[in-house]
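Justification of computing resources. Each target in the renewal requires a structure prediction run like the one illustrated here; the chain below, 117 residues long, is used simply to show the kind of job we budget for.
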Amino acid sequence: MHSIKIKRIYETPEDDDGYRILIDRLWPRGISKNNAKLDEWNKELAPSTELRKWFNHQTELFPEFSKKYKSELQQQKPALQHILDITKKQSVCLLYGAKDEHYNQAVVLKSVLNSLE
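Resulting structure tokens:
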């Protein structure tokens, strides 16, 4: 298996990013689709609108957000498998727009994917 890494979409794309997947439901502000250098935009793997609004990037809610998001991801097995299949061929970079690098959906999604490998 190749690596799975996470990165803010606002960071400069690099050659070693591998397959770049945006995992936000909404397109990030200030980024052109051309500059994003995406291989895929996978909205199905993003938290639901309700969960995203409830969490509102409040650090103290992250443990509960993680639990709820993991529960939502249980309904996305084909999309999760799709990413795992890509990691068999190349590295994957999960891209997100949140400002907080430690408390966001990409952190949770990466941990779920790593547990399925």
